[in-house]
Amino acid sequence: MTNRTSIGAIALAIAASAALGACAKKPPAQLPPDPGGAVATTSDTTPGTMTTGPAAGSQADFVAQMTGQDTIYFDTDRYNVDSSDAAALTAQAQWLLKYPAKRVTIEGHCDERGTREYNLALGERRANAAKNYLVSLGVDAARITTVSYGKERPVALGSDEDAWAKNRRAVTVTID
Amino acid sequence: MKLPLIALLALMATPALAQQVAAPVPAPAPAAQPTEEGGLSGEVSDESDWQDLGIAIPAFATDANVPTQASAGSTAATGIAVAQVITADLKNNGLFKPVGPDPLPRPAFEQVQAPDYGTWSGRSAEMLVQGYVRANGDGNLTVGCYLYDVALKQQLAKAGWVVPPADWRRAAHKCADVVYARLSGESPFFDSRVAYIAETGTKDRRMKRLAVMDSDGANHRFITTGQATALTPRFSPDYGSILYLSYLNGNPRIYVYDLERNTQRLLVQSTNPTFAPRWSPDGKWVLYSMAIGGNTDIYKISSSGGTAQKLTDSPGIDIGGSFSPDGSRIVFESDRSGSQQVYVMNADGTNQQRISFFGGRSATPEWSPRGDQIAFTHIGGNFRIAIMSPAGQSMRYLTDSWQDEAPTWAPNGRVIQFFRTARGSGKASIWQVDLTGRNERRLPTPVDGSDPAWGPIRP
């Protein structure tokens, strides 16, 4: 990871975390595994350029640029966007405004310590909270769909507070 | 697939002794009603004495051992299997201590209506269940079922059914229902079915399939392939279809699965996610919950289609819903107060009132088919199955585990199934408990199971 794009993304992440240093909440110390790992290592298909990273404007590019900020996290039973979520969504919005043709799906999730049907509704509410924030930053609502997985798709498999904190999330996925 | 209906017939008299006994009375409904003089009726909550009630259930006799199309085999083999099913029903229910056919002498066909009381009192049996299996000329089976009080040397109940061979277990469940109803004074429930979600795979990639089975786990069948995650099924009251949630095409929406045609359709044509489908007791209405812009409310629609009526309008999550047996009221779940709590409203959405005030959260309410109780999930640290009155009084826990949720009532309102999730592995299993909370057991399912939904007693 020596290309300029990645360095830029890391710098952005450092800046963001420094700005949020006073925030006591989340995000989890360890980020969830990258679901698009195989895609992220795909080399740039555009010939004749210096970059070797993902294609600009692709989902792999989005994941690489966001460095974890494609996901926001929630407190138990909550769906409000707090300051660290706002920073992540701002980064997402900047990327989306740069690629106005891209559409995204926001996946809302809950931890396992909720009843199944309520969690489906809560995941939908979380995804919509993220969507509404992106719209407030100028992203066209028509570009954003939401889907709730309730507690059906955990990323952290334990049954403890750490795992639950990682699973209470809204993940923005761009549609290639 | 058509669920075969059986004719519930008055027992046509056992052949050999048919002329010597009084004409049998029609058995169906009256068997569920305890008689005053029997002295055997009692509250389920007072079952301590019942545990000691010795019931002998020898192999059912046959007039002629002939091959049948039944999975259990010949009429003689089916007679053993019928007695085993009855024994398992009564034993698993927890109220009785039945002794099954294996250690018992098998009555002769002629003894079915003339028990050798000495044999059974010598074995300390207080009750005797016996009967016969007979192959009819048309390929169907006739199953006769008799309940005797050994001490009183008295017949307490009898019934008979003509069933297709494939439905021999239904006759056994019907017989267990006759015995249960006569001895407990409660309504029958064994001859009923359960829809649920069969689960396989790792915690982060669970495959969830719609499946159905009898109330004892037999006659299991997978309905969906698992390619789309299936959740929260509900049998229609006539067992003809199932409402459930599927992620078919990527979004969670409610489908109506037709069990006769093996086809399905969307309940509501909308791009919004729909959750938590529920039938009205008469099958004429469906409740569903739909999220618009992240806000979930409860709607009611005719099961034959038409325009939906929005019943709730709070900015919080209003979800689920369960009709009272007369269809006039609905109990549902809402977090409008800040956390999940249980509310009741009229069936038109008016007069919404919170009824759960127990601390913690209260979720997934289900109105008992008897109308006297509401079962729900209480969340206060652990998730436990509890019951309360429709006014929110007399709350009582039935289970105590790390995560029990989503109770569903037996057709008689005396037994509850729910699912239990294991801490760590996330593995789910279906359990059953009666209203005493003491008789708890796991249901046998071929793979893990969740979201049980118990259907009504079959005709």
What does this structure look like?
- The complex is a heterodimer of chains A (176) and B (459).
- Chain A is α+β, with helices and mostly antiparallel strands and 176 residues long.
- Chain A has one domain: 2-Layer Sandwich (60s Ribosomal Protein L30, Chain: A).
- Chain A has a four-stranded mixed β-sheet.
- Chain A is globular.
- The N terminus of chain A is likely disordered.
- In chain B, a hairpin with a 6-residue loop joins strand 27 and strand 28.
- Chain B folds into two domains: 178 residues, Rossmann fold; 262 residues, Neuraminidase (6 Propeller), CATH 2.120.10.30.
- Helices cover 9% and strands 39% of the residues of chain B.
- The longest helix of chain B is centred in the first third of the chain and has 19 residues.
- Chain B is globular, with a radius of gyration of 23 Å.
- By secondary structure, chain B is mostly beta strands.
- In chain B, 52% of the residues are buried.
- The N terminus of chain B is likely disordered.
- At the A-B interface, helix 5 and strand 3 of A face loops of B.
What brief labels describe this structure?
heterodimer, A: 176 residues, alpha+beta, 60s Ribosomal Protein L30, Chain: A, 4-stranded mixed beta sheet, globular, disordered N terminus, B: 459 residues, mainly beta, Rossmann fold, Neuraminidase, 3 helices
Provide a short characterization of the protein structure.
The complex is a heterodimer of chains A (176) and B (459). With 176 residues, chain A is an alpha+beta fold.
* Total count of helical runs of at least 4 residues of chain A: 6
**Helical amount among residues of chain B, as a percent range?**
under 10%
Distance between the termini of chain A: 23 Å
Uncertain regions of chain A: pLDDT < 50 for 5+ in a row?
1-27, 30-48
Shape of chain A: globular
Strand order of the largest sheet of chain A: 1-4-2-3
Q: How many beta-strand runs of chain B?
A: 30
Please tally the β strands of chain A and state the result.
Answer: 4
CATH superfamily of chain A: OmpA-like domain
N- to C-terminal distance of chain B: 17 Å
Query: How many H/I helices of chain B?
Result: 3
% residues in beta strands of chain B: 35-45%
Q: Characterize the main sheet of chain B.
A: 6 strands, mixed
Structural class of chain B: mainly beta
CATH T-level fold name of the largest domain in chain B: Neuraminidase
Biggest sheet record of chain A: 4 strands, mixed
Strand content of chain A: 5-15%
| Shape summary of chain B | globular
Strands side by side in the biggest sheet of chain B:
1-6-5-4-2-3
The number of domains of chain B is 2
The name CATH uses for the topology of chain A is 60s Ribosomal Protein L30, Chain: A
